[in-house]
Amino acid sequence: MLPDFNALAAFVIVAEEKSFRAAADRLGVTRSAVSQTIRKLEEALGIAVVSRTTRSVALTEAGERLYAEVAPALSGMQAAIEMAASQRDRPRGQLRLAVSSIAESFLSGPMLASFAESNPEVRLHVTVTDEEFDIVEEGYDAGVRLGEVIAQDMIAVPVSGEQRQLAVASPDYIERFGAPAHPSELTERRCIGWRRAPNLPAYRWEFEEDGREFSVSINDVITTTDMALMIKLAIAGAGISFGMEDSFRSAIGRRELVPVLERFCPQFPGFYLYYPSRRNMAPKLRALVDHLRSFRQTQTHSDG
Asked: How confident is the model at residue 219 (pLDDT cuts 50, 70, 90)?
C-alpha cells in the first residue's frame, strides 16, 4: 500500500526539523499525532525511515534516500498548487470563446480589443462558428449565441439589445422586379439563402403576421455558408436575401440595400454570452463578463 500525501509531507517536515515536537508545532497537531503518522508511513513502506531516541530524531539510510526524492517533488507540487491558487487573484491564461458568426455587436471589434488591452495576461482564442455543440465538452470557457437557442441551465449575460431579421434587396433589384408585398411571394422570387454548414439545409426564413409565426421555403437560387458573400450578392442584385438586421446595417446605411417586408419582421431577444456556472468562475471569464457589462453600459450612455 502506498503512503498518502499527508504522511509524506509530515515526514519531510520531521526530517527538516529533526524533532517530532517542532514538526508538530509546524503542522499544528500533537506530537503523538506526528509519531503515529510516521509509524503508519513506515508500515506502508515496510522499512524504518526515522531513528528515534529520547533526545533526538535522525533519518535512517532509507529515510535519507526517501527525503532526497520526496522533498523536491513536494516542493514542486506546492509551487504548482500556489500557482493554481493565484489564478483566483488576477485574470490570466487562455480564454476560449465560441461565437456565432452573426453576433455582430460582439465581433465588431471595439469590445474585444478593449478587453485584451485591459487584460494583457489573458490570451483570447475566438472561434467563429455556427455549428451547435456543447461548449463545455469541447473545452470552451463560454459562447455567444441568440438567447432563444441557449440551454436553460446556462448562465446568460446580454451582449446586445433586441434583434430582428430582415429581408433585403438592392435598389436595382427592386427597380427591375418590384418589392414583394407578402412573404408568400418569395417562392416565386430569386432569393439568396444561407446555410450553417455545407451538409445542412438552407435556413428557412421566419416571419410573423397578426401574432402568428410562420416560415417560408424560399426559391434559393444561390446558397452559401458565408454571410459576407451573401451580402455582396444581394448588393450586386442577385436576389432577395434574409439575415440579422445588424449584418445589413452598413449596407442599408449606404443605400446599397433596402429592407422589404418589414412589417412581417418582429423583434426577438438578442445575443448572450453564456457559460455553465458562476461557482468558482475563473478570473479570466469573470473579467470578460465584467468588461462586457461595463462596455455595454458605456455604449448605452454614449448613444443616449
From this structure: confident
Write out pLDDT tens, residues 148-182.
888 888 999 999 888 899 999 999 999 999 999 99
Q: Which cell is 209 given?
A: 403576421
137 within 8 A of 238, measured Cβ to Cβ: no
Q: What is the pTM of this model?
A: 0.62
Best CA proximity match to 143, nearest among 179, 97, 80, 183: 97
Instruction: Give the three cell numbers for residue 139.
Output: 473545452
Nearest of 159, 160, 148, 162 to residue 97 by alpha carbon: 159
What SS3 state is found at 11?
Answer: helix
Number of H helices, E strands in the chain: 10, 15
The alpha-helical segments, DSSP class H, found in the chain are 5-17, 20-27, 31-45, 61-86, 104-107, 110-118, 171-177, 227-235, 245-253, 283-303
Candidates 180, 193, 198; CA nearest to 219 is: 193
Q: How far apart are CA 102 and CA 113, in angstroms?
A: 18
Q: Which amino acid is at 89?
A: D
CB-based contacts of 97: which residues, under 8 Å, 6+ apart? 124, 125, 126, 127, 140, 141, 142, 143, 144
Give yes or no for residue 303 having a pLDDT over 60.
no
